[in-house]
Design brief:
Layout lengths: L1 E5 L12 E10 L4 E9 L8 E6 L12 E4 L13 E7 L4 E8 L2 E7 L5 E8 L9 E4 L9 E6 L5 E8 L8 E10 L9 E3 L5 E6 L6 E6 L3 H4 L13 E2 L1 E4 L13 E7 L7 E7 L16 E7 L12 E10 L2 E3 L5 E6 L3 E6 L8 E5 L2 E6 L4 E17 L1
Parallel strand pairs: 17-23
Antiparallel strand pairs: 1-21, 2-3, 3-4, 4-5, 6-7, 7-8, 8-9, 10-11, 11-12, 12-13, 14-15, 15-16, 16-18, 19-20, 20-21, 22-28, 23-28, 24-27, 24-28, 25-26, 25-28
Length: 393
C-alpha cells in the first residue's frame, strides 16, 4: 500500500509550504513517542531548507500542530544551500537525540535534549560538499561500544564512502574515521541515503541515471555472515564491498511520481516494514514565479516485505572496480558471475568471511564467466585494472 505522508499542496503551515523531504522516523522509547524528522522550506527556489520534527502516530498521521523547528536555515551559519538532509537516532541511556545535517559545504553533528532543545553541535566533516546528509546507525556493545557506522556518497559520487564515528555519545571525544569505498556507484548516487544493520547491512540510495531519480540498493551481508568467534570487531567492514541492484521493480510505484528519492527504511511506528521516500513531480516544467524548474518535494511511504532484503529478488547485482586489489565482494547464492576486465588478473574465492582457506582462478582480459561462485570473492592484479562485475541469481 502506498500512502501520502506530507503533501505541500495540502499543508496549511507556511514554513513548509514550499516542499518537504529527507523523511526519517525516530522513536523516543522513554515517552513512547515517535517523531518524523524531515526538512521543509517555504523558499520558492528550494535552497533555504530547515530541519523539523513532528509527532507521527501508528496510522502515519503527522501532527503539524506540534511541529518543532530544530534547524533554522541560517544555523549554524548563513549558506546558499541549507540543511540539505537530516538523519539521526535517539540515545535512551542519555535521553538525547543525535542528528546529522549536511549544511552548505559542511556536515554537522548535533545533540538535542528530550524536548528538542539544542545542547551542542560540531562540524564533523569540513568540505563535505554534497547534499546527501550522513546516514548513521549505532553499533554497540562490548568491543564496539560507543561506535556508530555511517555512509555517504564519495566526493566524486562514483561510490559510497563508509565511516565509523567513535565516541558517538560523548560530544567532547566524538570523532570520525573515513574507511573508504564500500561500493561503486552504478549510475550517479548523489543524494539522500539510508541503511540498515538488521536484518542485513543494506544501503538504500537515490541514483540519477539519465536525470531520472530512482531508488537503488546495495546488498550486504547479515552480521552473522561477517562476525564470528574469529572476527568480533567492526573493523572487518574495512575489507567488505557490496554490489548494487535496482529497487524500483520491487515497489508499486508508477510514473505519476515522476522522480523518486530520499529513501528511509523503518518498521516504526506500527511495526510494519515500510519505505519512506520523497517524490518530485514537477521537475520537467519551469515555475512562473522563479523561472526555475520545479522541485516541489512530497513525502510518501510504501509498505514493503522482506523480499527487499533477499538478494535473489534483484535477479542481478552490479558493481565496478578500479585498482590492483579489491575488497571482498559479497555474493550470496549467485548462479553466475560475469567479470569484464581490461587486463589479466586473479579472482580469489572463499566460502565464508573468516575462512582462512582460499582458492584462486585466472581471469583474462575480456569477459569471464564463473559458474556458482562461493559467497566471497576479490580481484587481485599486479597492474591497475578496470573491471565491471555482474552477479546473476
Amino acid at each position: 500500500m502506498i500512502k501520502p505522508i506530507l503533501l505541500p499542496q495540502k499543508i496549511q503551515n507556511n514554513e513548509i509550504k514550499g516542499g518537504v523531504g529527507t523523511p526519517y522516523i525516530i522513536y523516543d522509547v522513554k515517552r513512547d513517542k515517535h517523531w518524523l524528522l524531515f526538512t521543509g522550506w517555504n523558499d520558492p527556489i528550494g535552497l533555504k531548507r530547515e530541519g523539523f520534527v513532528a509527532p507521527i502516530d501508528d496510522s502515519m498521521n503527522v501532527d503539524l500542530s506540534a511541529l518543532i523547528k530544530i534547524l533554522p536555515s541560517d544555523f549554524p551559519e548563513n549558506v546558499n544551500y541549507s540543511n540539505n538532509a537530516v538523519r539521526g537516532f535517539y540515545n535512551e541511556a542519555k535521553d538525547e537525540f543525535y542528528i546529522t545535517s549536511s549544511h552548505g559545504k559542511n556536515l554537522y553533528f548535533l545533540v538535542f535534549d528530550s524536548n528538542w532543545k539544542l545542547k551542542g553541535y560540531k562540524n564533523l566533516i569540513n568540505d563535505f560538499n554534497k547534499d546527501s546528509g550522513l546516514a548513521i546507525r549505532p553499533t554497540g556493545a562490548y568491543l564496539n561500544i560507543k561506535d556508530a557506522i555511517a555512509v555517504s556518497p564519495s566526493n566524486e559520487f562514483s561510490s559510497l564512502e563508509l565511516y565509523v564515528i567513535r565516541n558517538v555519545d560523548d560530544f567532547e571525544k566524538l570523532n570520525i574515521e573515513d574507511w573508504g569505498k564500500i561500493g561503486a556507484s552504478w549510475g550517479k548516487s548523489n543524494d539522500v541515503l539510508d541503511f540498515t544493520l538488521i536484518p542485513r547491512f543494506q544501503i538504500f540510495v537515490e541514483a540519477t541515471p539519465m536525470s531520472k531519480w530512482l531508488l537503488q540498493t546495495y546488498v550486504g551481508p547479515s552480521m552473522d555472515e561477517v562476525f564470528s568467534d574469529n572476527i568480533s570487531s567492526i573493523d572487518a567492514f574495512k575489507n567488505v564491498s557490496f554490489l548494487q541492484g535496482s529497487l524500483m521493480p520491487l515497489l508499486g510505484l508508477d510514473d505519476s511520481f515522476t522522480q523518486v528519492g530520499h529513501p528511509h527504511y523503518t518498521t516504526e511506528p506500527d511495526g510494519k516494514p515500510k519505505l519512506l521516500f520523497a517524490s518530485f513531480r514537477d521537475t520537467y516544467s519551469s515555475r512562473p514565479d522563479t523561472g526555475k524548474e520545479g522541485y516541489t518535494h512530497e513525502i510518501w511511504m510504501e509498505y514493503v516485505d522482506n523480499t527487499i532484503f533477499d538478494p535473489k529478488s534483484y535477479n542481478e547485482l552490479r558493481g565496478k572496480f578500479k585498482g590492483t586489489e579489491s575488497r571482498w565482494f559479497y555474493l550470496p547464492n549467485v548462479r553466475k558471475l560475469f567479470i569484464s576486465i581490461n587486463n589479466d588478473a586473479k579472482l580469489i574465492l572463499k566460502t565464508a568471511f573468516d575462512d582462512k582457506n582460499t582458492e584462486s582462478l585466472e581471469i583474462k582480459k575480456g569477459i569471464n564467466t564463473i559458474e556458482n561462485p562461493v559467497n566471497w570473492v576479490k580481484i587481485s592484479s599486479q597492474n591497475e585494472i578496470d573491471a565491471i562485475i555482474k552477479a546473476v541469481f
